[in-house]
């Protein structure tokens, strides 16, 4: 009867073991309501599946969530990507035209830029210096 009053399953009803005699003598719904009000009969919390292990596993794998994404919508992120890739490609074409880098180096760097290897033009220039791809005159 207490389960139906609390609108829960029978397994979630907790009865105080010290007050068992009072609960056994309660016959009407009003008496049960009074015992619920006096916290003799309590509804236990629902047991759920813990997400803790999953969280630690995903953190360990390096999955962080949406916090690292700059720009709210996918369209905004695409716009950022387009501007970045266009500037990098134009910089590479410019370096090839000025003969600062060879055709082979240009061909090697194009797929790298598409693969998001460089954050910016300055990062690209830094990479070229580090790898000694810049042709000395």
Could you outline the blueprint of secondary structure elements for this entry?
Layout: H1 2-6, E1 13-15, H2 20-25, H3 29-37, E2 41-43, H4 52-61, H5 74-97, H6 103-114, H7 121-130
Antiparallel strand pairs: 1-2
Helix pairs in contact: 5-6
Q: Supply the number of helical segments.
A: 7
The rounded Rg comes to 34 Å
Mean pLDDT: 91
Oligomeric assembly: single chain
Strand order of the largest sheet: 1-2
What's the helix-strand series? HEHHEHHHH
Segments where pLDDT lies below 50 for 5+ residues? none
Descriptive terms for the model:
137 residues, mainly alpha, 50s Ribosomal Protein L19e, Chain O, domain 1, Non-ribosomal Peptide Synthetase Peptidyl Carrier Protein, Chain A, 2 domains, two-stranded antiparallel sheet, 7 helices, 2 strands, 55% helix
Question: What does this protein look like?
Answer:
The protein has about 140 residues and is mainly α. About 55% of the residues lie in helices and about 5% in strands. It has two domains: about 1-45, 50s Ribosomal Protein L19e, Chain O, domain 1 (Orthogonal Bundle), CATH 1.10.1650; about 75-135, Orthogonal Bundle (Non-ribosomal Peptide Synthetase Peptidyl Carrier Protein, Chain A), CATH 1.10.1200.60. The protein has helices at about 1-5, 20-25, 30-35, 50-60, 75-95, 105-115, 120-130; strands at about 15, 40-45. It has a two-stranded antiparallel ribbon with strand order 1-2. Helix 5 packs antiparallel against helix 6. It is rod-shaped, with a radius of gyration of 34 Å. The termini are far apart.
């Amino acid at each position: 009867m207490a389960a139906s009053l609390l609108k829960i399953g029978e397994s979630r009803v907790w009865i105080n073991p010290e007050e068992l005699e009072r609960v056994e003598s309660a016959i009407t719904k009003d008496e049960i309501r009074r015992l619920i009000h006096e916290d003799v009969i309590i509804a236990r919390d629902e047991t759920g599946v813990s997400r803790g292990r999953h969280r630690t596993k995903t953190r360990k794998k390096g999955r962080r969530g949406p916090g690292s994404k700059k720009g709210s919508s996918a369209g905004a992120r695409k716009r950022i990507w387009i501007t970045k890739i266009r500037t990098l490609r134009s910089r590479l074409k410019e370096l090839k035209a000025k003969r600062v880098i060879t055709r082979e180096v240009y061909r090697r760097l194009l797929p790298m830029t598409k693969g998001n290897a460089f954050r910016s033009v300055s990062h690209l220039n830094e990479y070229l210096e580090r790898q000694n791809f810049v042709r000395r005159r």
